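Quick one: Amidohydrolase family protein from Streptomyces neyagawaensis, structure tokens please.
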Amino acid sequence: MTSAPAPVLIDAHHHLWDLDERPQPWLDDPDLTSIRRTFTPDDLRSTATRPVAGRHLHGTVAVQCVPEVPETEDLLALAEREPLIEAVVGWADLTSPAIGDTLDRLLAGPGGTCLRSLRHLVQGETEPSWLQRPDVERGLAAARDRGLSYDVLVRSHQLDQAIRLAERFPDLPQVLNHAGKPDIAGGELATWREQVRRLAAHEHVVCKLSGLITEADHDSWTTSDIRPVWDELLTSFGPDRLMFGSDWPVANLAGGWNRWAATVDELLTDCGESEIHALLAGTATAFYRLPARG
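--- reply ---
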């Protein structure tokens, strides 16, 4: 007899940083003053107390913030000693001719078995086809050949790059971070919807339900503001290709971990048990090859 899936919650997207150990220059933005401090796994444990569909936080995926290999090494070493962190999304210079050597070193180093995916902050690149550069594609192939996945971080106007990436790398598992950052605050979703549907047509691409509240009005958003994006993602990708993520502590700018958890709980009302499991644990477990739970 096959046992039912364990009722656990995986946070497939959060960050950690220790400002005494490693600077985070992006936090110099005056709008980010409230999160300009150190955040540790213990901070996450004490914060993430709200259950979602009766499930409490069980494991997480820690995601890089700065384009520096030493930060990835820090996260991997932390994951090796921290049971809450089950996988790491790291950074390496995809444009470097030495990308293969760098990845081999990371995978063989402390916590290297926790490295499951790479990410680059394409959202900050002004080149309109950055993901299609020959040197970037060489780096992506090196990641693929080592069994790694790729976390796609683009803004909504860059989704065409994500679509071309999916077309050119059908054998590289990809996950769209923060749903491609739809303009929830401005309400301009038509083009985003069309692009998301095109991306979702590629079955090797999945999507994170994360970072949505910081794309809404930080002070006044409600569940009603999030629902159109949620509904589109559920229709386009289906629950088996969606995963819950908090984007904590960045989420603190717009309400925090527990408020986002409560919102997801409300949005799950019409979903069945198997859909809930996929959204809250199953998709992340499969994509990031997390420990199986039965």
